[in-house]
Write a structure and sequence with these properties.
Elements (H helix, E strand, L loop, with lengths): L3 E4 L3 E5 L8 E7 L3 E5 L5 H14 L4 E5 L11 H7 L4 E5 H21 L14 E3 L2 E5 L4 E6 L9 E5 L4 E9 L11 H11 L6 E6 L7 H20 L9 H14 L6 H6 L3 E2 L13 E2 L1
Parallel strand pairs: 4-5, 5-6, 6-7, 11-12, 13-14
Antiparallel strand pairs: 1-2, 2-3, 3-4, 8-9, 9-10, 10-11
Helix pairs in contact: 1-2, 4-5, 5-6
The structure holds zinc ion (ZN).
Zinc ion (ZN) binds next to loops.
Length: 292
């Protein structure tokens, strides 16, 4: 996978080659606002690599960062960017701003207590601007329609729809070719979000992880989430995924892999409760689990 993909000669998608995550970050130059950046990488060194690409393809005059959701592989290197674009606004949904504060503190606490996870944010960022529900930004040559989704892969996401390009920037509501992270089991509302996204007139979907795709991805995501629900009912019954007996966990993982043999499985282990990603594994699972 190349690090830069250009979409409709307008949008630049930078994929962070960090471990096995392949997070996507998008930047573009606008008539009215200079450069807009949608999500930045986890590590400052990857933020710096993204910054080099931004300078290569645009004026480098960043006026706005839009952060899609609270997971730190989409916002943490704002730490670096605050040095090269100190006056740029940082916009998130209100719930995401809240989640960044809560999660950021939990990451820092976890590492102080156990020192097991090296990839923590350097600091907990504060968005300069928040919004609720929807926000329309006239960028001049095209429009950015920001919509909050409610719970899906995170407690809240901001997707961007650009009607002139029929492009949907979907962040982690959509994974392409990767088993999604569903450790917190928001699959019920996530499916509702997918149904709603189907109502958009979309030609191109830019996922949070994986290559650029088309609206057929909605079917793939629905299939994954529905199978997950069916198998959870079969193997966990009325319990949550983290309380599922270990032998059933293995069966569920194998069945998911069999149905999606080409998908990268890193997060599947976590989604089926086999490994718990910090800071969640505070002992709320009655079976012993592998800590990462
Ligand atoms: Zn995420």
């Amino acid at each position: 996978m190349s690090e830069i993909e250009i979409i409709d000669d307008v949008l630049y998608m930078y994929t962070t080659p960090f471990e096995n995550w392949w997070s996507n970050h998008i930047f573009f130059e606008t008539e009215k606002m200079g450069v807009v950046v949608y999500d930045v990488p986890f590590l400052n060194e990857d933020g710096k690599a993204l910054w080099e690409q931004i300078k290569k393809y645009t004026s480098g005059e960043i006026s706005l960062f839009i952060l899609s959701h609270g997971h730190s592989d989409h916002w943490s290197s704002i730490d670096f960017f605050s040095g090269v674009a100190p006056d740029a606004a940082i916009l998130t949904a209100k719930e995401t701003a809240n989640n960044i504060q809560i999660m950021g503190k939990a990451y820092v606490n976890w590492t102080e207590m156990f020192g097991t996870w090296s990839h923590i944010p350097e600091l907990i960022i504060k968005p300069t601007e928040t919004f609720e529900k929807e926000k329309v930004i006239d960028a001049g040559d095209f429009t950015l329609k920001l919509y909050t989704t409610g719970p899906a892969e995170d407690t809240e996401h901001t997707v961007i729809y650009i009607p002139e390009l029929k492009v949907l920037l979907a962040n982690d509501v959509i994974y392409k070719g990767y088993h999604p992270w569903n450790e917190e089991e928001r699959d019920g509302h996530w499916l509702r979000v997918l149904d709603w996204l189907r109502t958009f007139d979309v030609k191109t979907v830019v996922p949070g992880h994986g290559p650029v795709c088309g609206p057929e991805i909605f079917d793939d995501m629905e299939k994954w989430l529905t199978l997950y629900q069916d198998l959870r009912l079969e193997y966990a019954g009325r319990y949550g995924i983290k309380d599922m007996p270990p032998e059933n966990r293995e069966k569920m993982i194998e069945e998911m892999k069999a149905e999606f043999p080409d998908w990268v499985e890193g997060d599947l282990q976590i989604s089926c409760g086999k490994m718990l990603a910090p800071p969640y594994s505070y002992g709320n699972n009655k079976y012993s689990v592998t800590k990462i």
